[in-house]
Amino acid sequence: MNRFEGKVAIVTGASTGLGPIMARMLADEGARLVLAARRRELVEEAAAAIGEAAVAVRADVTDEADVAAMVEAAMTRWGQVDVLMNNAAVPGTDKWIWEQTVDNFLDTYKVDCMAAMLCTREVLNRSMMGRRTGAIVNFSSGAGWDGMIRKSHYSAAKGALRILTKVTAKEVGQFDIRCNCVVPGAIETELMVNYMKRVAEEQGTTVEEIAAGIQAPLPLKTFSTPEDVANLALFLASDQARTITGQSINVDAGLVMT
């Protein structure tokens, strides 16, 4: 398939994990890309692996000037933005609510929710609204549905992102622009492995036991892969989903059923 032939996509959080995998899948279907992340060397490696169809930009997506420069890079190189993948995220530092700090709470919120607003605002004003076309995909988490202990900062931000998705969809529909939200559960990434290692160490158990505990309530006893999540994201960004907007769709082996 070449669902993104002639289209330009921006992928944030494109240095590790889901980001570079999703970028490669977009390129394989014809997209031209701007890959953005805070770690310059890693995002440049991800862009180089794709080739001439990708441009790397070092960007802190909580910084308005960096976001403006990121979108300017797309406009200068490609002349338009058709797809925005708001993939940048941070886990913050695990704390019980009675230990929570303002800095940890707000720093997490800025990346995991506010950054999506900044990036969305910029692509709307620079390209999508004027051309009356575009697809925006946000990335929440299962923690944004029911919450996760010691992650009030992360859970609140990811829950807010789903509401931001709905409001955005309602406001931009008049311009034939769509906005949806992918809600992954546990994904087999380096971040997930490191999380399980840390919890296992804290609890004096093994990574295998932690993994089994996470999978226990799942109807499908497996973790999602980055490709599983990317497959849904690409569908939502494509014209195949032209009448789907404002939705939060789970990719979590059946943990949350709505």
Name a few traits of the molecule.
alpha/beta; Rossmann fold; single chain; 2 domains; globular; 7-stranded parallel sheet
Can you put this structure into words, describing what you see?
The chain has helices at 18-28, 40-50, 64-78, 102-131, 143-146, 152-172, 190-203, 207-215, 226-237, and strands at 8-12, 32-37, 54-58, 83-86, 134-139, 177-184, 248-251. The protein has a 7-stranded parallel sheet, sandwiched between helices. It folds into 2 domains: 8-185 and 225-251, Rossmann fold, CATH 3.40.50; 188-223, no CATH class. Helix 1 (18-28) runs parallel beside helix 2 and helix 4 runs parallel beside helix 6. Helix 2 (40-50) links the parallel strand 2 (32-37) and strand 3. The chain has 258 residues and is of the alpha/beta class. It is globular. The model has no long low-confidence stretch (mean pLDDT 96). It contains 9 helices and 7 strands, in the order βαβαβαβαβααβαααβ.
Number of strands: 7
**Main β-sheet description:** 7 strands, parallel
Structural category: alpha/beta
Mean pLDDT: 96
Please give the structural blueprint.
Elements: E1 8-12, H1 18-28, E2 32-37, H2 40-50, E3 54-58, H3 64-78, E4 83-86, H4 102-131, E5 134-139, H5 143-146, H6 152-172, E6 177-184, H7 190-203, H8 207-215, H9 226-237, E7 248-251
Parallel strand pairs: 1-2, 1-4, 2-3, 4-5, 5-6, 6-7
Helix pairs in contact: 1-2, 1-9, 3-4, 4-6, 7-8
What's the gist of this structure?
By secondary structure, the protein is α/β, with parallel strands linked by helices.
